[in-house]
Amino acid sequence: MSNATAKHPAIYQLTTVHAITDNRILNLMAETASDAGYNSAVVGPWEKNFPFKDVQMIAHPVTNNRKSKWIRLTAPWRLFWFALCNKKCSIFAIHDPDMVKIGFLLKLFGKHIVYDIHDDYEASFKTRFARFGKLFSFIISKLWWYYEKALSHFFDGITVADQHLANKFCWGNPTILGNAPPLNFTKIANTEKEKTFNIIYVGSVTKVRGVEVILQAVRLLKYDDIRVIVIGNCSDNDILTQMDSDDRVCFKGRVAWENLHKYYQKSHIGIALYQNIPAFVYYTGENAVKIQEYIAAGIAVITSNFPGLTAFVKETKVGFNVQPDDPQAVADHIEKLYNNRDLLKQFAENGRNSFEKTYNWELHKHKLIDLYKKIVPID
Question: Quick one: CATH architecture of 3-118+155-178+364-375?
Answer without folding.
Answer: 3-Layer(aba) Sandwich (3.40)
